[in-house]
Amino acid sequence: MEPVYTRLGKMKSIPWLGQTLASLCWIISVFVYTNGTEMSTADWLQLAAASCWMISNIASIIEIKST
User: Fold this and answer.
1) What would the pLDDT profile of 20-35 be if each residue is shown by its tens digit?
2) Is 41 helix (H, G, I), strand (E, B) or coil?
3) Domain total for the chain?
4) Is 6 part of a structural domain of the chain?
């Protein structure tokens, strides 16, 4: 059973911060790696995966009901 979090409490948790930071780094790395060249299909898929991970992290905060 998971502990009950407030929105701010979850955002301050190590797992949430770690996952959000990791997904942000992944998104940034796609643009750094392409270095101004045209993005390949693989680059777009990497960007989509990283963005979905970030959206999932944000959604986990939004779904917590305010008290």
Assistant:
1) 999 999 999 999 988 8
2) helix
3) 1
4) no
C-beta neighbour count of 9 within 10 angstroms: 12
Tell whether 4 is covered by a domain: no
pLDDT of residue 57: 95
Tell me the one-letter amino acid at 14. Answer: I
Residue 44 domain boundaries: 17-62
Distance of CA 67 to the CA centre of its chain: 25
Decide if 41 is inside a domain: yes
Q: Where are the beta strands (DSSP E) in the chain?
A: none
Handedness of CA 19, 57, 11, 16 (dihedral sign): negative
